[in-house]
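Supplementary Note 3. Input sequence used for the single-chain structure prediction.
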Amino acid sequence: LVQCYAAWCPACKASMPQFHSTAERLKESDDVEVGAINCERPGNKQICSDWLSVDAYPSLLLLNRRHGTLARYPSADSKAAEEVARWALATAREWRSLFTTAANVAHLDAEGFGERVLDDARRAWVVLFSDGLACAPCRTARTNLLRLSASLAGLPVGLGIVDCEEPSNGAFCREEHGMPERPHGPAFLAWPRGLKRRGGSTRGEA
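The predicted structure, written as discrete structure tokens, is reproduced below.
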């Protein structure tokens, strides 16, 4: 759980006592660690703007480094320590459950995509084309991909992700699957069961 703040921000200063109380409530938790980042400090601005898409202070985010998931605490909700801690723990519990399905999400690239996805006639496929794996919209899309994996467990549907930031995937993403020039938002493409090379995909924004 990370609070993103700016030292000059009056609302940030006012929220710090509640944030410290939240940290106190979570200190015994094995699921949630707590920290804060001054987004105005040199070296932190890019993290807050490019990686986390922070557009208001203070902002509360829950992150998982290993799986790349991200959730934002609703800005209109109560910042009371009890409420924030309850949200963080509930979200962490959901993620723990989702992470059990993470192995079902294939990491795809240009070289193996055709054989893995397009030649798989027995399954439909949903693939996330992500402009890197660190940006905030990308993290949110990865979180949603894990939710989709959990909801489709046991069904004949393959799930995958392509990192369009990888140089070897750049032309593949743009020329073969219609992704715009970088930077671009994440997008989902879906293929039905059956022979996929003859038909196109269905696109949806992440």
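The domain at 2-99 is CATH 3.40.30.10 (Glutaredoxin). The radius of gyration is 19 Å.
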